[in-house]
Amino acid sequence: MKGQIYADSLDTYQINIINITQEIGQVSTKDGKYNIRAKVGDSILFTSLQHKTYTLNIEDNNLRTSTSIFLEMQINELEEVTILQYNLTGNLSKDIKQVETDFIDQRQFGFRVPRKLAKVERELRAAQSSSLDFLIMSLNGEMKKIKQRIEIANIKTDKNRLLRSVSSGLITTDLNIPKIYIEDFAYYCAEDKHTVSIMDKGDPLALIDELKLKAISYISLKNLKK
After folding, report:
1. What is the DSSP letter of 57?
2. Sign of dihedral through CA atoms 120, 124, 129, 133?
3. CB neighbours of residue 195 within 10 Å
4. Quick one: DSSP state of residue 107?
5. Tens digit of pLDDT for each residue in 39-68?
6. Which of 66, 72, 91, 175 is spaced 20 to 30 Å from 153 by Cα?
7. Contact call for residues 123 and 146 (beta carbons, < 8 A)
8. What does the buried/exposed string (b/e) look like for 157-192 if buried means 16 or more CB atoms within 10 Å of the residue's CB?
């Protein structure tokens, strides 16, 4: 199936074309042309952040001739809000006295302060919360890229944890790792889930024993002389 999409802002926003039935997807060209595999009875979704989603149920004529799609701009309206509830003057030192606030520190009730999610983790949460976004990002490869970025960020975090857990002197003297390879060795260890699990247990002696084994394989891998 192929055709032409007509909509505003096509030069800056490409349209996602998704065959929901076959779970395949494409994006339009910058001039709005599209081409996607389809058969009679399939449901095709045309969607973007800037436009209202349009669904087309494929009929025989859609496969025989070019199909034009017209998309409307998506307009998001906020609910009515009252901005002068406290008769604010614009002078912060005066206005703050008029607004009553109650602050509760959740730590006083035994709750931990929530960990602030990294930007890439927030992107993943947002995509997973919307089945449509999740489908689109899975088809165009963005979901895979986000998960790879999270994995890399986690490895970097574990690398830093390892370097805080053991001294550089121990790594160079006891493990025979040259000083210039300390950080690379830490990355090597952080990529091993077994090593990370031992570090998570908080047992320094078990961690050192594990690092000794990792050092042997690392030195062999790098062909370093003791």
Report:
1. E
2. positive
3. 19
4. G
5. 999 999 888 878 888 889 999 999 999 999
6. 175
7. yes
8. ebbeebbeebeeeebbeebebeeebeeebbebbbeb
